[in-house]
Amino acid sequence: MRSPIGDFDHATPAPEVLDQLIAPVAAAVRQWQGPVPADQVLYVDTDPEKADTVAFVETYGRDLLANSANCVVVAAKQGGARVLAACLVLSAARADVNGVARRQLGARKVSFAPHETAVGETGMEFGGITPLGLPAGWPLLIDTEVAALPWVLVGSGRRRGKLIVPGKALASLPGAELVEGLGRHAA
């Protein structure tokens, strides 16, 4: 199958390559209940050595700069408790964790979760964290610009491989909240 975005050799419906996905992501695909059929969630194989943004777009297509999103794990302090959440913003933007995310989560302070926490709590590889298969109960803040895209490239849970998902399907993921202005664009 031809990929709807990027220059990938092959795009495969994710339900056909569950063995290529880590356990929490494979479970999310198996239990898919989004507004599009699960076979519209596509998997593309990528070289983990080309994961850096510049090398990635040179290899897989310049259109990916405008059609990819990063999923970052944040830690919010609410009262005496720490709550983990994920933020999904366009790759060309930075998550506004101290402003928009903090207010949306009703937290006193929000910061990026340490590497060990992000990897340990999600069961995903650093640099491949994806909004599909996040731990139950986590808030998933999604910038409205991401959800408005026809197709979005996101991580697959591993550094090797990516998922291409219809933007509108992201809003139906467990814990998803659409948030205006979550991603800040560089001036």
From TrEMBL:
Transmembrane segments: none
Pfam family for this entry, one: tRNA_edit
Annotated ranges, domain YbaK/aminoacyl-tRNA synthetase-associated: 53-171
InterPro entries per record: YbaK/aa-tRNA-synt-asso_dom_sf, YbaK/aa-tRNA-synth-assoc-dom
Descriptive protein name: YbaK/EbsC family protein
Provenance organism: Streptomyces axinellae
Lineage: Bacteria, Bacillati, Actinomycetota, Actinomycetes, Kitasatosporales
